[in-house]
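Lab channel / #folding
Pinned by the channel admin:
"Please post every new chain as: sequence first, then the structure tokens as a reply. Keep commentary short and put observations after the output so the thread stays searchable."

First post following the new format, from NK:
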Amino acid sequence: MKHVLNVHEFDLIAYLHEYASGFEPQYALDLSVLAEAMGRGFSRAISYLKGINYANVLSPNKDGEVCSELVYLTIKGEAAARALERRLIEKGVLIDGTPSEIYSALQRYPVSCRADIVQDIQEPSVAVRGSCAGTQE
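Reply from TO:
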């Protein structure tokens, strides 16, 4: 089954791919830091990505107390991030051969343009608006 992701979900995948040292639980990032960085749409994005097994959330216990929750990409989420990275290179949003900076590259575009890019990645037949192609904030 093909999963259709929105711009917030792609942002979250990109953020985890860029800022975590790897994928799987040992590379989890603090959920509260992510929520602050990602802002609006974060809760729904993490919920959906958990539901399709692209991300997971840990609630570690420390001496019986719940510590800050942690979030990480699963192997499926990492595969989606790499596919996103390939498509962004094809679209000229990222430069091939540079360190992966998917999240940073996407944040240079207004949300409406990022939504177009995300839609185009998932449905290549849909054209990116002329005002978004190659235009950055």
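NK: The radius of gyration is 15 Å.
TO: also worth noting, Strands lie at 29-30, 55-58, 61-62, 65-66, 70-73.
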